[in-house]
Amino acid sequence: MFKSIHVATTVGVALLVALLSGGPALAADPMLDPPFVPTDSVPPPPSADPGHYPAPATTTAPADPAPTTTAAPSVATETLPPPGRPAVAPPAPPPPVPVAGHYPDQEGNPYVERGFGKGYPGSVVGTGILIGGGVQDFSRSNIRGMTDAGGFWSARLVAGTREYVGLEAAYVGSAQSITALGLSNDAVLVSNGVEGALRINIPIVSSGGGLVEPFAFGGVGWSRYHIARSATNTSDLASNDDLLAIPYGAGIAFASHGFMADARFTYRSTFYNDLLSTTGGALDSWSAGAQLGFEF
């Protein structure tokens, strides 16, 4: 028993000496686990820049959050006029001006497209009807000595007054007192006839469609003269006479808003005169007058 205790004591002493002498070697052996090092004492890793060393880490307290403000909602304000002064509305845009002679909403209607009654020319070429009258007298002395100056009346259809060349067709009548031996005291020489003429125009058209037009004309006609208001005719005058007339003259015409008028002087040369059967002589005459009508 004492031997066992001695052996165990010897072995324990040997182990204690071995541990005391081999501890540093075990600590330096890389194959063994590294010694425990507290994390607080671990230095920061070196910087990639050899000449730069990182600044020591500092602990900063979090900053207080910035106070937030809520924007007030925007309110639309209305600008009011000064006291005592009423608000003035902006002026309305002017209406579109239609093109003269064309209305898209009335295509196919020639009267609307031409602007009839809307301040535009009532006719494209200038067509109209005129009615008028004036004064007339004979130019030859033998018949002028038997008659007094009288009057005439006419109804005329014209075409082409807005062109350089136009046409006319007319009915023309006249009446003049006549005095001769064998006629009643209130006898009247009356004529009725028709005429046609070629017309040369100088149309001057304004921007609003108005027309001022000097013109000249010449044509041919037929007239029948008759002694009226005489119960008997024992004079040297024939009761009736048909003759050829050549009217020509000049005048000036006006037109605006569908209405037209003209003033003219006309001279008529006559042929195949038989009224003055005894003394002879032509029934040439002149007339001056005016007419009023409308374009269409």
Keywords:
3 helices; 296 residues; single chain; Porin; mainly beta; rod-shaped; 8-stranded antiparallel beta barrel
Give a verbal description of the structure.
- The protein is mostly beta strands and 296 residues long.
- The protein is built from three helices and nine strands, in the order ααβαββββββββ.
- About 2% of the residues have low confidence.
Tell me, briefly, the overall form.
Answer: rod-shaped
Average pLDDT level: 78
**Structural class label:** mainly beta
Beta-strand content bin: 35-45%
Distance between the termini: 163 Å
Oligomerization status of the protein chains = single chain
- Strand arrangement in the largest pleated sheet: 1-2-3-4-6-7-8-9
- Major pleated sheet: 8 strands, antiparallel, barrel
Low-confidence stretches: 115-121
Summarize the structure.
The protein is mainly beta and 296 residues long. The protein has helices at 2-28, 110-113, 141-144; strands at residues 127-138, 150-159, 165-177, 188-201, 204-205, 211-228, 240-256, 259-271, 285-295. The chain is rod-shaped.
Structural topology:
Elements: H1 2-28, H2 110-113, E1 127-138, H3 141-144, E2 150-159, E3 165-177, E4 188-201, E5 204-205, E6 211-228, E7 240-256, E8 259-271, E9 285-295
Antiparallel strand pairs: 1-2, 1-9, 2-3, 3-4, 4-6, 5-6, 6-7, 7-8, 8-9
